[in-house]
Each structure stands twice: as structure tokens, then as C-alpha cells.
Amino acid sequence: MGNLDGKESAIMIITDHYAVFGQPVKHSKSPRIHQIFAQLTGQNLQYDAWEVSAEQFTGAVTDFFAEGGKGLNCTVPLKELAWRYADIKTERAQLAKAVNTLALQPDGSVLGDNTDGCGLVTDLTVNHGINLTDINILILGAGGASRGIIAPILDQSPNTIVIANRTTEKAINLAEEFEHKGAVTGCGFGDLAGRSFDLIINATSASLSEQLPPLPEGLLAVNGSCYDLAYGNQPTAFVRWGMENHALLSLDGLGMLVEQAAEAFFVWRGVRPVTQGVIELLNSERQP
Ligand code: NDP
Q: Which residue is catalytic, options 29, 70, 79, 97?
């Protein structure tokens, strides 16, 4: 409180509220990442993690925005529901049919965006110097994460993308959705024998249970690299597979997590945090 011109005045510091909704979400690193971004960029915000099931989703989002919330991240299993909830969508969200970022607009409508693909491409190309142009890329998995990454990867003009999935039909259908944007085909794991790829991206959730899709010998080209969207304190089963198969780089998805968060932060706050130090900090905090 102060006293200007003989009148009482108050300086109100408004804290904007953000959150990640998902299930399970209690181990999410997103609250920590966004609090660091807020400190780095001088923004005043609070970011929480809320366990929200698919059944609770619509009511929980409506309440969150009605109570003054400004933006949400949505993770497993809510990205498709978030896509349906959004009043307006960015082009990349429209293509993905999955939304990981909701942002309240000044007119009260809710914008849906998908920052996953941008986060992955930034981590691959900027942070790790992996060129995606004119190479052959294999994406394992045809779930929500795959949906978000295909178009941004196609924008880098690879030679081909093959999507392989346990349920073959899902891979074929997903590839058909994107074939107008570039050379992308779908198949089952059994169809991979005898083929090789310069970059293999694991977008299955197999790593979360320490499992590995069935991958034939010779699948990774000489000097090829591997990238697992999943991450953990220890190398995932797929990161270890990459090392055993002499990958030039065998990486997990921590960098993507930070980069997709930075893009969401930009959508909400109009400020882009510098990510390198945040990735280094989170890497240093991994338990041995
Ligand atoms: P979904 O549940 O939508 O899809 C899961 C996919 O994994 C499906 O294609 C499924 O095949 C496949 N799958 C599951 N278990 C196995 C298994 N044992 N063997 C082979 N395939 C399997 O999950 P998401 O797409 O949303 O997430 C996938 C992964 O990406 C998760 O590990 C998630 O944590 C990670 N992720 C990381 C991000 C980051 O920023 N680093 C961002 C987004 C996701 P089927 O269709 O046959 O069931």
C-alpha cells in the first residue's frame, strides 16, 4: 500500500494460473520447467499439475477457465479430447487432430495448439544437429504423439517417413492422413525386415513399461541415430537398443519435453525462454 496525492493506492500483482492436466501426471516435470521459464523471463505465473481423467476432462477444463485460468497443457490420455474442446485451432493442431496446449483468448474463446512436433524438431535439429532433409525416417507407433510429429517432420523434407505400429491398420490410416504433405507410408513391425533407416524415432509408449517393439537386425543404417520420445532417469530400453546398434546418437525425449514447453510458454506469454540451460539443469538432476 502507498500514499499518492493524499489517496490510498494499492499495487496489485496478478498471478496468472496455468496447469497440466493428465493421468498419470504426478511425476510431470512441466510445473518445474514452467516455473524456471517464468523466472528466466520475469513472468508472474503459477503452474500446477492436476490428475484429470478422460471422464473428468470437459468439466475440469471449463471450471479451470471459469475460475480465471489462462492456459493448460494436456497430456496422456487427453490430447484428442483437448482437440475437440478447443474453439479454434492452429494449423498444426488441426493437422495433428491432437492438442497439448490450450490458451484462453481475450474474447473468451479457447485456442488449441500442438507444440509436440515443433519441440521434437527443435531438439533434433537445433540441439543435436541432426539433419532431417533427404533422409529415411522410421516412426514407431501411431498414437497421439505420432500424430503431432509427422507434419513438422515432413516440413523438413525427409526422403521418406515410414510409420510402423503394433496395430498395422492404425499406421496405414495415419500415413494416409498425411500423404498429401509428403512421402509417408504405414506398415506393421513385421514388414520392417530387410529395410534400414537413418533416423528411428520411438513414439510408442513401450518404453514406459521397459519394453521394446520387435526390431529386426540391420534396421538402423550406418551412422544412423535413435530418438525415444519417452525419457527417464536411466536410459530407456529403446535408447539402450540404439547404443547396442551403434547409433551415432541415441537420445531420449527430455529435450523435446523442454522445447515443447517453451513453445507453449510462447503461445501463452508471447515470450520465448532460452532452453539450453534448462535442459542442462534437468539432465544434471537425473538420478544415477
Ligand atoms: P498413445 O497411448 O496415444 O499411443 C501409444 C502407442 O504405443 C500406440 O501406437 C501403441 O500401439 C504403441 N504401444 C504401446 N505399447 C506397446 C508395446 N508394448 N509394443 C509396441 N507398441 C506399443 O501414447 P502417446 O502417443 O501419447 O505417447 C507415446 C509416447 O510418447 C509416451 O512414452 C509418451 O510419454 C511420449 N511423449 C513424449 C513427449 C515429450 O515431450 N518427450 C511428448 C508426447 C509424448 P497400438 O496402436 O497397437 O496400441
A: 79
What are the residues facing 220 on neighbouring strands?
Answer: 197
179, pLDDT greater than 80: yes
- Assign a CATH topology to domain 6-114+257-284: Rossmann fold (3.40.50)
With a threshold of 0.85, does the pTM exceed it?
A: yes
Choose one of 113, 205, 236 to mutate for the ligand 1 pocket test, by most ligand atoms within 8 angstroms of C-beta: 205
Does the Cβ of 255 fall within 6 Å of ligand 1? no
**Residue 80: what are its φ and ψ, rounded to 5°?**
-75, -40
pLDDT at residue 237 in the model: 97
Q: What is the pLDDT of residue 156?
A: 97
Split at pLDDT 50, 70, 90, the class of 4 is very low
Task: Look at residue 6 in the predicted model and tell me its pLDDT.
Answer: 45
Which atom, in ligand 1's list, is nearest to the CA of 148?
A: 43
DSSP element (H, E) containing 58: helix 57-66
- Distance, in Å, from the CA atom of 183 to the CA atom of 185, rounded to the nearest integer, reads 7
For residue 89, indicate whether it is catalytic.
Answer: no
Report which protein residue has its CA nearest ligand 1's atom 13.
204
Break the chain into its structural domains and give their ranges: 6-114+257-284, 117-252
pLDDT band at 288; cut points 50, 70, 90 = low
Radius of gyration of the chain from Cα atoms?
20
C-alpha atoms less than 13 angstroms from C-alpha of 280 in its C-beta half-sphere? 5
12: left (phi over 0), alpha (psi -120 to 50) or beta: beta
CATH code for residues 117-252: 3.40.50.720
Q: Which residue type sits at 54?
A: A
